[in-house]
Amino acid sequence: MNNTPERLCKKVFFADARGCYYPFTLYPIGTKLPNKPAVYVYMHVECGDYTPLYIGETGALDTPFLDQRVWRCVNIHFVNAIGVYLEKDKEKRCNIEQDLIRIHQPICNATSR
Question: What is the pLDDT, as a whole number, of residue 61?
């Protein structure tokens, strides 16, 4: 079984509490990401099912941004993709991140507290 999701600019949409959908570009774990600010979703992808494991935001995708506890958690739950939504505005990124966490309740966000 191949647990690596297909890339080719695939978009995955996650909704917030207001019903706004955000298009996240899907990348396999290990892909070199651009040096850009974004909201990101670590997820397990299998058979067209997208399970968010951890949702966060960062000012630069190309620098490490997960602590060891979170990284262990996403690996235990078979992380195989990261979804990226580019957003320059820090306040917007934080609002989107918190809203998506509230709606989707990723298991590894609870672990990180």
Answer: 92
